[in-house]
Structure of 3-isopropylmalate dehydrogenase:
Amino acid sequence: MKIAVLPGDGIGPEIVAEAVKVLHALDLRFEMEEAPVGGAAYEAAGHPLPEATLELAKEADAVLFGAVGDWKYDTLERRLRPEQAILGLRKELGLFANFRPAICYAELTHASSLKPELVAGLDILIIRELTGDIYFGQPRGRRESPDGAFRGAQEAFDTMRYSKPEIERIAHVAFQAARKRGKKVTSVDKANVLETFQFWKDVVTEVHAQYPDVELEHMYVDNAAMQLVKAPKKFDVIVTGNMFGDILSDEAAMLTGSIGMLPSASLNADNRGLYEPSHGSAPDIAGQGVANPLATILSAAMMLRFSLNQAEAADRIESAVKSVLAQGLRTADIYSEGTRKVGTRDMGDAVVAA
Ligand code: NAI
Ligand code: MG
């Protein structure tokens, strides 16, 4: 099993080191190879996604990614900015399915901005389509408006589009994931207004015929935004397009109150994938040894489950994380009175010990 390790910028190297430590503590054999990405790669090689890093990511069975970005690169031209690395990896590896679980751990229910009873035991999975929709649809641009009430004025436009195979493959991913969980899929659309999402709804319904054991529910995105804060536990798996998924997955992340706890996976058609915490490079706390490594450690668990076929090892990591929380260990972002504050390294060591 070959893992490409791309730590990146800010807290990336600190948190990835802890996840690597946890992987080494399992009695499994991995080949791990590290490469620079993001701002670190721009400094070292003049490009945020150097050819050698991309080649390594392509030949590996999975990519363990930290985070990229720093305000100091804001003045660079767009193609050289750190964020281009993650967009490039998604595109080059064909990572069309983004998994973002939002789990509220018993010990951390107080961290949510919602009432504890609304989030206690929360365990939902958002599956966001990652390579289509209005974010990539052509044509797009600026022009002089050709018609309508503002004809002749400057205007900008993007194009929302999804092809049938794109919707089918993400629908299969969602139904298969739901089969292994609560057996319910909520497909989020805006079919009442958008032709693209009426088509989405039709195709998801068609694919559903192959999964009679899974319940399918359709919901408009505005209602979904409302239901997520009203009764989030009613959801199991949510599947949606790129833009709605971008927004709803951040909303769902906040239900748990702790960005430092949330892993993510981005998969392609052969279950290879890129695994990273949902948060960014946190330049405000980089180098201080205080970042929470658990989101990255839990991302490594997802990597074992989805790309490396080691579900048992993934379970062991996830129960070790629950165990350190039960022991009362907390990094600063999840600290509350009566618990024990620890740094990045001590948290990683505690997971290894557990
Ligand atoms: P951020 O997620 O890096 O930080 C937001 C807040 O959460 C900060 O106060 C930070 O200290 C805290 N935080 C984040 N992760 C934490 C952890 N593991 N432990 C404790 N506290 C944590 O988002 P922000 O500040 O908007 O962006 C910072 C940089 O990260 C930017 O350059 C941005 O472009 C980049 N970014 C990169 C992503 C990626 O690599 N996939 C995703 C999101 C942002
Ligand atoms: Mg986002």
Notes: The CA atoms of residues 15 and 119 lie 27 Å apart. Residues 123-255 form a domain with the Isopropylmalate Dehydrogenase fold (CATH 3.40.718.10). Residues 11, 15, 67-70, 83, 86, 259-260, 276, 279-285, 291-292, 295, 333 surround NAI (ligand 1) (CB under 6 Å).
